[in-house]
Amino acid sequence: xxxxxxxxxxxxxxxxxxxxxxxxxxxxxxxxxxxxxxxxxxxxxxxxxxxxxxxxxxxxxxxxxxxxxxxxxxxxxxxxxxxxxxxxxxxxxxxxxxxxxxxxxxxxxxxxxxxxxxxxxxxxxxxxxxxxxxxxxxxxxxxxxxxxxxxxxxxxxxxxxxxxxxxxxxxxxxxxxxxxxxxxxxxxxxxxxxxxxxxxxxxxxxxxxxxxxxxxxxxxxxxxxxxxxxxxxxxxxxxxxxxxxxxxxxxxxxxxxxxxxxxxxxxxxxxxxxxxxxx
Length: 279
Fold this sequence. Notes:
Blueprint: H1 20-29, H2 80-107, H3 113-139, H4 152-157, H5 163-191, H6 195-223, H7 229-235, H8 252-257, H9 262-270
């Protein structure tokens, strides 16, 4: 049998074969596209200590970029190649999100099993989004086998030493922002006649409502109180600020469906301009 290829990691000893933790390890460290697959397994190892992988394995063609390209202006999206480039970037985001949900299973073994089971489910759903984006990017002419990536999500996750920080950053932060961005780009794609691209973005946005709700539930569990804007802001890894995770326009209805109340959303809308731009 052809075994998965993995990037070496001097800090990591693989979990036992056949466990959920090993499947998560395989997803993160795999260096072939065919091995970036949902972490399915029958049994849990319940690791005796945290396993914090330093970084992901990357298939050939996903060389690291110093800075991501700028987002095309709305008028440029009339060109299929500009839309394809955006879908490649969305694909990158979904890959990193899937890897980091799997990373969280390994990094926080003392959390409730229900939390880690949820992270596994979310990792699988993010890989489903990745396939939707990859299919459409190819339809628009992109070579998805060669697409350098900016692993910005990975540069910040290591500052999350507690599970509340992890869900604050990845779930309430990045996935919360995607509720705004997916709606904005769906509108832009529909305006230039790409109905299929718009429908994909809307489908992902609906899924992300559940993802954000999951993170909100567990943030409340880990902090012991209802979602509070100031507490969320304090849990974000420095130097990240709340406004970094705010798109324009703010999708109040979607965010409310995920459990963000009016007080939280008003505070997010007023938050000072972001101090750092994802790159």
